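ERR on first pass: missing label on line 2. Operator R.T. fixed the label and resubmitted. Corrected input:
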Amino acid sequence: MKSCSGLEKVLTEGRFAVTAEIGPPKHASAEKIIEYAKMLKGWVDAVNITDNQTAIVRLSSIAAGVHLYNNGVEPVIQVTCRDRNRIAMQSDLMGAYSLGMCNVLCLSGDHQKFGNHPQAKNVYDVDSIQLIDMVRGMRDDKKFQCGEDIKEHQPKYFIGAVANPFADPFEFRVLRLEKKINAGADFIQTQSIFDMNRFEKFMNMVRQRGLHKKVHILAGVTPLKSARAARFIQKNVAGMIVPDEVIERMEKVEDQKGEGIKIATEQIQQLKKIEGVAGVHIMAINWEDMVPEIVEKAGLKNY
Amino acid sequence: MIIAEPKPIQEVAEYIKEYHKVLVVGCGGCTSVCLSGGETEADILATSLRILRKKEGQKLETVVTTATRQCEPEFIDGLKELVDEAEAVISLGCGVGVQFLAERFQEKWVLPALNTILAGGTVQPGQWEERCGLCGDCQLHLTGGICPVIRCAKSIQNGPCGGSQNGVCEISTEMPCAWQLIYEKLTVLNRLDLMLAYRPAKDWSKERSGGPRKMKREDAAL
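pass 2 clean. output:
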């Protein structure tokens, strides 16, 4: 084991992992996070907490992680490159580790243009791959990014990264994933999958390069709430693909929410059969309370 | 070159509201080439300011002149007499020009008429685009001559990020993804290996993070 992570244990043992995602609140109370912790405990292996997603100010990822941890849920803290330089990142990584965090997800972060402070100055001192390399260096080389030794108590994180099979250039996506693995990524969360054909093609390329043996890939699943929401994602969210068939299927039924859950459940069952998929990451945006039902319906509850 | 754009005229009028005689200094360098701060633009600005003042029922006297380049002392020394006679100076130079005038004429308010926006070039008549981030550590030999520091909205060194789709950046469908451009160029050059190689964290101490920079050349010194 490289880290203190329970998620690492699950994945290393070859069990199909289930993780969920929650977005911290836009206020200073932990109440909702604790409520989610109680709801998700026992249903998932870890819960990923976003770091001011879409550049909207929220309660910090690390603080939310501590609340989860204190309530018996293993957190995956997100760290984006948008808001902090290498000094702040390393400091926060050590601080979070001292509070019991063992999983980190490294990503570049949504541009501030999308958020509620579009006038902000972004940082991007390091990019996501350089961040992965920095966390790995702190753990394995026992060095700060500058090369100085961390003489004792190095933070030993289980290092996550993201991959987006739906972004372009498509052929380069697998090669970029490989760059992330080489930099030190231990596990991968993919962007939400709606276009299964494209994901299958992606995984095919992953297997051709043997990458599924070097990294644990968690396939991203997002239940759609309505045909309208699906259409919105299709038209407005960069880096996502929602095929027309999915939207048409949603449109045909009365109970669109139910259909959304059904699609997600079917997807999970399909994903489980793909060689190289080590687990699923369920991103039920503003719909976190559906996670236990999805896990149960997909037949993943094995506790 | 440096590209600058005119500030809204009301904003400039506000800067000088307490003065009755101002010197308007155009620049014959970059801001003249990008049609924001040359002789013609200086004339138009002075006239506009006078009209605005007249509408308020008051008077404004303007004197207009243009320096060959405001960023060189030898071209601004000669303005001394005109500056002395004015209560304030409006510069149509870039941020460098404004500061050179302010440094040279310590007792005068020197006010900017332009917003300096980028280091770039003319992509078509009337359209200028950013090309250089002045990072002090040029890496264009690794990226097929396309700069990710300034042309990627996140200055990513190992791109493209997950927001690149259909060739455009996540922040605007009008903006090409720099890393998509790099990918295409390196493919043509058969040098995709450059994009596969990990690029370590950049040394930003060579750009403005390291403080104001200087360049010295002994052979050019007097």
